[in-house]
Description:
The complex is a heterodimer.
Chain A lengths: L3 H24 L2 H4 L5 H5 L30 H8 L12 H5 L7 H14 L4 H12 L13 H33 L11 H13 L2
Chain B lengths: L1 H28 L2 H30 L6 H6 L6 H6 L5 H22 L8 H21 L25 H15 L1 H13 L4 H33 L9 H26 L3 H23 L15 H21 L16 H33 L7 H21 L10 H24 L5 H32 L3 H11 L1 H22 L4 E7 L4 E5 L5 E14 L2 E12 L2 E13 L11 E3 L1 E4 L3 E11 L2 E10 L2 H18 L12 H13 L1
Antiparallel strand pairs in B: 1-9, 2-3, 3-4, 4-5, 5-6, 7-8, 8-9
Helix pairs in contact in B: 1-2, 1-6, 2-5, 2-6, 5-6, 5-7, 6-8, 7-9, 8-9, 8-11, 9-10, 9-19, 10-11, 10-13, 11-12, 13-14, 14-16, 14-18, 15-16, 16-17, 16-18, 17-18, 18-19
Amino acid sequence: MISRRQFLAAVGAGAGAAALGTRVLMAQQPGARQGEHTQAAMAMDSSNLFAMDQAAARAVVLPPKPNARPSMTPDERDALEHRIRCQCGCTLDVFTCRTTDFSCQVSPAMHRDVMALVAGGYGAQEIIDAFVKVYGERVLMAPTREGFNLVGYVAPFLAMGAGAVLIGALIRRWGARAAAVAPSAPAGVQATPDELARLDDAVRRDE
Amino acid sequence: MILLGELSLWVALLMAAWGATVSFAGGALRRRDLVASGERAIYVTFGAVVLASAGLWTALLTNDFSLEYVASHTSANMPKVYTFTAFWGGQQGSMLFWALILSMYSAVAVYANRRRSRELMPWATGTMATVLLFFLLTTCIKANPYARLDFLPLDGKGMNPQLQNPGMAFHPPNLYLGYVATTIPFAFAIAALVTRRLDAEWLGVVRRWSLVSWFFLTVGIVMGMWWAYVELGWGGYWAWDPVENASFLPWLTGTAFLHSIMVQEKRGMLRKWNVVLVVMTFLLAIFGTFITRSGVIESVHSFAQSPVGSWFATFFFIATGATLYLVATRLRDLKATAELESMVSREAAFLYNNLVLVGIAFSVLWGTLFPIISEWVRGSKITVGPPFFNTVNVPLGLLLLGLTGVGPLIAWRKASVANLRRQFTMPVLVGVVTGMLLVALGMRDFYAVVAYILAAFVAGTIVQEFAKGIGARRAMHGESIPRAFVRLIGRNRRRYGGYIVHVGVVLLFAAFAGLAFKTEHDVSLQAGQEYTVTDPYGHHWRFVSQGISRYESLNRDVLAVSLDTWRDGEYKGLIKSEKRQYKDSQGNPTFEPSTEVGIRTTPKLDTYVVLAGVRGDVAEIRVTFNPLVVWVWIGGYIMAIGGLIVMWPQAERRRAQAGYVSVLEPQHEGAAS
């Protein structure tokens, strides 16, 4: 049996050895010699809320339709931009990003493409399709409701439905079991309606 | 102090390992000396983590830039309050902060149960020490805040400007306090499963700690919403970002548990389900931490590129496997002592409530993970943003709101038709009249109308319950209405505190529905130019630009635009929005510029102005009218107040587990008829 003093000394020595050992081991890792804890490491540090990719914009260009006129009002265009995701890494839609963050160069570029397509006579769905063709489906703020994406939309409701069916079945089973063990005739209560009402009220207050 | 702190971190690690080992051994061998040693190890771990934390705070406040963490998150010219909060502003510090809170909670739990729950304590202590061991090990090996740089920088990089907000002092600590508190119920659930003592004893401890977790998560989430709203400038307070979702998930299952636990207390039912909920809440807290710190999911938040993700994944799978094994081998011990008799009973209503809460949790988790699932299945990346979450969750949320009103009105065991008629007539009437009024006034948004009908219905149920209680007290004790109100709450804090929480829920939903009428306007203004627009209530607003100003302030350069505002011809004051470029002490710019929003708040409407950019002398401005936003904060704080009332210790009373209410009900009905 070791004494408390010996135990504490052992813990202290163990902690010191562990700290030293880990530092030595880490220093011998290949990355460490090349400056793991350097300015580059600081620059990549996690306190950046997100790393903005200013070069993420791609040209989404289509030739104007013959005799093209603007296909939508500015309000409708803003609503459309709410459906398109800025690619700078902010996770916002194009309208919100370009009207929030003036350091972003991606959402203004995407906005310019939207305006050109609107001026070229393209409708909302055509513009969305053009953006998807260039950036892929990730340019949409929400997946389209087709193909495998439908699983995404339907699964929560299916799960809820399954849960509801399960609960219904359980309640039915429990109810049948409870009825089977219930006494055949309820015991009589010798009390006036007024007394019962007061008792009921008292019980309710305790719920 | 810094060296002492670094050493203390390792002492804490060893003590947690010791505590876990001897506690489990003490429980298995029934050795009291080992159990006592394990409990003392928890206290020592707490002390050591306090020293480790003090060391890091010392390093931060003395600008010791030889530490990579200090250099990465602070600079010499940063206000001290943010230097202090930098402790939890980055990966490594936040891991230590988690360990600090967990060791504190563990010490409190061990101390509070030094004479109680003795059969459970070895296993509960062992589980707490194991979780602590994981966090300390991850901190020491993968995210050590004491890691040193190869060089000594002149100044640090500073803190991200968006974190330099008062919210930084309150939001993360509250969230962590909530997250970490899920560990204690989990530890007691594991202890109850191991010892097969799944009676009311563990339930008491678990309920108290679940309330602590729920309270802090609620406050933390609402503060996070406020912070996002005032700081990020995108005009909303909830974006369904994975990090937001990660905090919401344990809140949902924790809320489900706080409802279903009442069924177990009253009727001895749902024992398996309650254990599952406690475990699920803890695992979701860990899983949420994993998905937001592993980089597997794109998030606007900070920890997406950190190296601790694989550790969290491993811990999550081990914890899930061990818990599943324990639950599977204890199913027989978790058999209910009573059976549910009717689909129209309070027990059933709580089950429906649980179904919806867990259903929402599933849909949030599903939506958060769907980009990964889709990439696995189809090989292409997709985005699952707010439109998806709103499509799926708005109907579920409304269902939940409706159930918030239904549950308290239905009797236990089996509700009679007379009971339903008596309880529901007034609240349903209030809801229907509200709906008719809103439609008559021109409201056409389907979900908004449904939300206000349900909110009015739930408000009606709460008012009815309070009116009945106050009436009864006045009849019995002759008290004034205010006194009867206060005493009513004081005498049954759990029930009436719960109703106050429901008041907060009603206000929140009413505020959420207000977002359906939000309008945004993209404006370009030179000095002296004006912009006129109509808000969602039909009031006419005039904004006149006072021009762009540039000045230096503290550790930043500021670019600001000020707007004089009039509503229906009445002057409403000046609204100013800023762009800030933060600098280090050498005058070098740090980070991207950040936004300071100008907000004018009234109970009906927030006028929200953002300086989006400047072209020459033209300010690009976004003006947003956000109806009813202030009620989100008020509703959130009312929920927190209700939670405090429920948590208040005197509210604890011994409760009989019999379902006497509805035993009386049919006879009462019969006697009365």
